[in-house]
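pinging the channel bc i need a second pair of eyes. not urgent but kinda urgent?? the chain im working w is below, pasted from the shared doc
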Amino acid sequence: MLSIADVGGSKLWQSPLIKFFLRIAAFVYFLFQENFHRAWAEAEAVSNVLSKEEWFDLLVETGFRNIKIKKLKSKYRWVPEPLVIQASKSKSRG
């Protein structure tokens, strides 16, 4: 059984232009809140935020079944929506 809690991007996050602005916003925010290295890491991480549908496709592609993904509501539209993901793989017989 696999259980994951992660952030999930909305369809709005799929746009290259939106991703570009999100990367800049993340960089600026963490540059002032933390430091340069954290800001760079957070800006790079924006490209790794998957939507609920992308998570589902990735899990199916890698052999998971019984996939359940629950999207939780974010307080603000621009904040990634938390996802709670559960899936399982059948045991191979050898």
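so The first strand starts at residue 2 and ends at 8. and The radius of gyration is 16 Å. — does that match what u expected or am i reading it wrong
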